[in-house]
Amino acid sequence: MRQRTVAALIGATYGTLSALWVITRRVAVRAFATQPLLTTVDTPDTRPTDLRAVARTTGVLWVFLANSAAIGLVAARGFSPTLAARLPRLRMPLPRAASRAGALLFVIDATWCTLALIFNPGYRPFFLPPKRGARLATQGPYALVRHPRYAGEAAFNVILPVFTGSWLPLLGVLGWPALHAQARREEEWLLRAAPEAYRDYSARAGRFPRGWPG
Q1: What does 161-186 look like in DSSP terms, one character per residue?
Q2: In order of start, what are the domains of the chain with their CATH numbers?
């Protein structure tokens, strides 16, 4: 698949999903208000205070940044021939059928990540403490797994190389252990913030999809 085609598909997908997020925002906020309320006591200090916390934060960011860097390079190569000639070629030779399958998986995973934001309009990056009056997301993708955003970004580490032909996102796999460690840390706080509600929710939804590495 040509880089311009890949870049155009990425732009069209994110443009459509961004419009969907904006259109559904008001309804999503009202629906989210019915979810279990978390207590505001014992708000976690998310600043890295030791080597383990720094490693966990760096690893999670690495998973996300590997994907963002790959998408940025594809966009640059697809829409700027001059810049494309100067950028390093980080591509793997893949059959056209693989690229098409990767394109389909990309659209599915991007939709999954957007739905995670729609069904959790109170979502905040992991390095920021929860707002007062935060609620527990249990609908949409959250009804299937407890960390759909993390699962979606980790899946991109594998899907993007097949779609774009760039091996750069595969480097994000190195951050998967940190992703698991961060998920466990967040669950410890959630269990303290809403013991009954979170214990019941955990019995229905797994941390990550069944069979997920780690």
Answers
A1: HHHH-BSGGGGGGGGHHHHHHHHHHH
A2: 3-33+48-126+134-204 (1.20.120.1630)
